Amino acid sequence: MTEIVFYDTLRQGLWIAVITSTPILAVALVAGLVVGLFQALTSVQEMTLTFVPKLIAIVGVFWMTMGFMTDTLTSYFTTEIVPLIAGG
């Protein structure tokens, strides 16, 4: 394996990681901003108020995008990684 192939595979793997994690991170950001705004407006400083809605939102988005994540990772491994391991 040459350096070019190694770095290209690494770049593609990092891009796949960014694409698959973007929906969850975006929802966590939006949920955190909404809860933070709610806390600032109502002066309610409960620790579970920040944790529970964000956790529910993350689990919901993960459940909805699980198929997309699985398909993306599976196609990456079958088209890029497995041929490299097999020597093709």
From TrEMBL:
Its main location: membrane. It is a multi-pass membrane protein. It is found in: Cell membrane. Keywords: Cell membrane, Cell projection, Cilium, Flagellum, Membrane, Transmembrane, Transmembrane helix. InterPro entries: Bac_export_3 (IPR002191). Signal peptide: none annotated. GO terms for cellular component: plasma membrane. GO terms for biological process: protein secretion. The chain crosses the membrane at residues 14-38, 50-69. Belongs to the FliQ/MopD/SpaQ family. This is Flagellar biosynthetic protein FliQ. It comes from Palleronia aestuarii.
